[in-house]
Amino acid sequence: MPDDEDPMTPRSFWDGGREPDEIEAAIGPSPPPEEEPRVVGMDGRPVRRTTPPPPSDPSKPVIRVLNGLRHHAADEGLAAMARAEVGFFQRDRSLVRAALSKAKTSDGAVVEVPGIVAVTQPMLLRALGTSAEWEKLKANGEAVRIDPPKEVAEQIGSMTGEWPFPPLAGVIATPTMRQDGSLLSEPGYDTATGLVLMAPPAMPHIPGRPSMDHAQVALGSLLELLEEFPFADDASRSVALSMILTTVLRGALLPAVPMHVSTAPQPGTGKSYLLDIASAIATGERCPVIAVAPSVEETEKRLQAAALAGQQIIAMDNCSDILSGDFLNQVTERPLLQMRPLGSSAIVRIPNTFSVFANGNNLSAPADLVRRTLVCRLDANLENPEERVFRANPVRAVLADRGLYVAACLTIGRAYVCAGMPTPQRRLASFERWSDLVRSAIVWLGGADPCDSMNLARAEDPIRLARAALFNAWKAEIGLRPAGLMASELIDEAEAQDGHGFL
């Protein structure tokens, strides 16, 4: 070995006394130095980027972020998202978007369920990145591409009142009718109603001016779905029709609709199945239900969560014998609701675009809820009604051709409007639009008045019955008609006849 040879140098370098340039000529040039890896693969080894960054898009604006001028970048970012129509909306003081989420039904079918979700900061940053190209200046004055800064997104997220996005009333999965009688059937945002229509079903042709004959045919297709239900009376059948029509025509029935309740003396009579039919037509899936909690407060929290999520139908399953709760009174009547999301101290205001359902055995609505509730009574007059055998499967029929039944509901509504809305029923306070369209259309087509169900509900009101029992007890005790006395006079009269009063 030569005296100056480094023992750690590869021996091949000296073999044959060749110079380094001769070695390179023999084995080829050295590979270029590797780029700094930017991605790590699943096996933990670095992966080099093999494709260059995408070229600039001339159709997108370029937003340059400068120190001290991030508010300008926020304004430009808002304008860029508005031009790009990113699909954000305002709901009270929050940014939201309409989204379809996949869900599996009990029979394994995959359905897409529309809903309202909050715009998170990562989603806002994504929208800013797809709407514009962002850059900053290096120290030498060179412009370089960057991601949208988080500080800009934070500014935009807090700019309530300056957002250019339209207000959102709700998200629906079925075409509906507007308050002027026109049809909302095109997917997307509708400025007249504030509703977003997502994934509507294909429908048969609906005549521009359907006649009463068209409406009768459409009614027949809906009545076929209800043929095997054991309705206790004609009013109950009309309530079932109202349940179906109301969910589809909801866009024309703002601000509020009555609550629809199905009840029976025994389980297995078809109460839940009736809700499934209405929901399958309106949403394309069986009715999602909320379990009633032991306390009214906990139940109301669940109802509010469903309302905040933008569900079309809010349904309570297997309720106890008496429906109650302040939220039920509000969600069935008030045009604007104020509620507090779970775990938050903020109050959120949302418009009332819901249809509220409930079912249970021997249900009754007390006090002020009576005038807000339509009751469908089912009675199979059997010891074990769950053992009945049905010839048809209405829910399966709806899911197989949902558009047919949606078109039937729209045809009935349009036909009644085109006929001049004849034979209007006496308007129901707080639900005037529902009374003018759904209730009156059912009567126009020969059905019973669904509000007739309120008379029996009023007679069965447990608070009303308790009050009557008290009055009768007073009458038996003092021999007077309590209705003719003020409360203070009644007490004075009772004490006059019995020195120590009633107790």
Short descriptors:
503 residues; alpha/beta; 5-stranded parallel sheet; 3-stranded mixed sheet; 15 helices; 20 strands; globular
Summarize the helices and strands and which ones pair or pack:
Blueprint: H1 20-27, E1 39-40, E2 46-47, E3 62-64, H2 70-84, E4 88-91, E5 94-104, E6 110-118, H3 121-131, E7 133-137, E8 143-146, H4 150-157, E9 170-172, E10 176-177, E11 183-184, E12 188-190, E13 195-197, H5 212-225, H6 234-248, E14 259-264, H7 271-283, E15 289-291, H8 296-308, E16 313-319, H9 326-331, E17 336-339, E18 348-351, E19 355-361, E20 373-377, H10 394-400, H11 402-418, H12 432-444, H13 452-459, H14 462-478, H15 487-497
Parallel strand pairs: 3-7, 9-13, 14-19, 14-20, 15-16, 16-19
Antiparallel strand pairs: 1-2, 4-5, 5-6, 7-8, 10-11, 12-13, 17-18
- Helix/strand-derived category reads alpha/beta
Largest sheet: 5 strands, parallel
Amino-to-carboxy terminus distance: 124 Å
> What spatial order of strands do you see in the largest sheet?
15-16-19-14-20
Q: How much strand content do the residues show?
A: 15-25%
| Shape verdict | globular
Helical proportion?
Answer: 25-40%
What is the β-strand count?
20
> Helix segment count?
15
Radius of gyration: 34 Å
Mean pLDDT: 83
Q: Show unreliable segments.
A: 1-17, 33-42
Characterize the structure shown.
By secondary structure, this protein is α/β, with parallel strands linked by helices. It contains 15 helices and 20 strands. It has a 5-stranded parallel sheet, with helices on both faces. The protein has a 3-stranded mixed sheet with strand order 3-7-8.
